[in-house]
């Protein structure tokens, strides 16, 4: 013992906890997000207020301007965008709550457990994704009010896309949160990341007939690749001629290439995975 | 409070290493500052061991190294026979932690906080409910189990954290300043629970404190100052090693008193809280001589057996309060710098 006493300790990689430890940590963090979501009724209602305002106030106002096709008006067009908005804000809120967790100490309890830090981040990202998807599902209930049919294939399609989008956004939020030390920075995140992401995503207007600079920006916004498939699946289920659909939603293009839905969803998934990896790395680094 | 003794882990006692904690020549440097400068000690299994020292002495750094939260710059630390650097996850499974700052989830109930902890540490599902009841009983919170932590007082939160730290039957429980920020009455309560815990569970406790009176609850104490251990023994032995009584003289002319003590008695006096303080082998025999020979009028005399405060003074030349004051100054300056940025 004494002989080794003054040996310099080389920087060691984190002793790898067993996979089962990590799995437990992921489950605990995920469950905690769900419990907190369920318990916080006020948050559920608040998160609905904003999309409802957009859909029924802004949407109605714009409908008067734009006109309608048969029973469908601008609100129908906006509906998938507003669902995406719900998912966006709920997911970001969940992700950034990790900064609160740090401020109020709970994160520390997680970080001293016999699991790797990455497991905590992964649990948080899955938890946030689940919560945001659930909140999005509440919005789907309003579909009938804007003439979107309650068809099973449509609802399933929307839920799948919402889940992917929610995962990506939560991971993105966690990546941002890993660099935030104070709760006060949350407002800055909303202003400089979330609102631009929302406005550039095509949630409120078609991404065609727009100037090149804006076109480029919208293509850089990962959320665009979730909003477009959502709108596409909604329009496919409406009783309007394909030509009108094409005019309403020419969809996401790179140059003149119309991106297939699966390709867009792959982008969403890849961005989500990349952000998760970056968030895990950044959280693991801080001592 | 029904079961008399709870053996804290299922393995036979023989499987436990005789030393719960073993630290050899530990160093931790932060840039220019060396927070821990060559600390060595060991703690026996079942012992309650206290780290006593002012804020900034290196207590929290040492405890964080032992808990695998930070890595030592050099030196070796083993907890429950396992290396804190290379066997990190293994160490974590065997230790319970109670931090200075609360780390509970306020939105969850007491029981949910514990259940999550049990799951996180892999406590078998079928034993979890029993174990939760045991630890909540120990800290007297069983009937508050379904309440959200948000409504708990500071003392209740600390008790719940102690319960949580025990939940996975750790070999070693680390308590970092377990009573800091609590009112005196609650402090006494917390200590009652800790004493009860020592009686009922076969567990090693490692705690830090800067309260002298609390250190007396320990089997052995290490006095740490400026990153090194200056003394290590049982509280009684430490007090005996000072072997001198403290005499405090209240007088209107402090300077003359100090001068006369030096000239006539050959004693180096110090000033403490407005009184002149000297240390003498037999305090009660010294007082009559003092009255006979001192020409300065005396207002009051107080003779006291040595306390740990005196021990700290004897080994470091300062009282804990002095060190605290200067640490607070530094802290204030740092906060100010940060505010300006």
Short structural description:
The complex is a heterodimer of chains A (287) and B (341). Chain A is mainly alpha-helical. Chain A is built from 11 helices and 2 strands; from the N terminus they run H-H-H-H-H-H-H-H-H-H-E-E-H.
Structure in words:
The complex is a heterodimer of chains A (287) and B (341). By secondary structure, chain A is mainly alpha-helical. Chain A has helices at residues 19-39, 41-66, 74-103, 106-111, 117-140, 152-177, 186-199, 212-220, 224-236, 242-248, 261-285; strands at 253-254, 257-258. Chain A has a two-stranded antiparallel sheet. With 341 residues, chain B is an alpha/beta fold. In chain B, 39% of the residues lie in helices and 26% in strands. In chain B, strands 6-7-8-3-9-10 form a 6-stranded mixed β-sheet, with helices on both faces. A 4-stranded antiparallel β-sheet of chain B has the order 2-1-4-5. In chain B, helix 6 links the parallel strand 7 and strand 8. The radius of gyration of chain B is 23 Å and the shape is elongated. The termini of chain B are far apart. Residues 1-14 and 331-341 of chain B have low confidence and may be disordered. Chains A and B meet through helix 1 and helix 4 of A and strand 1, strand 4, helix 2 and helix 3 of B.
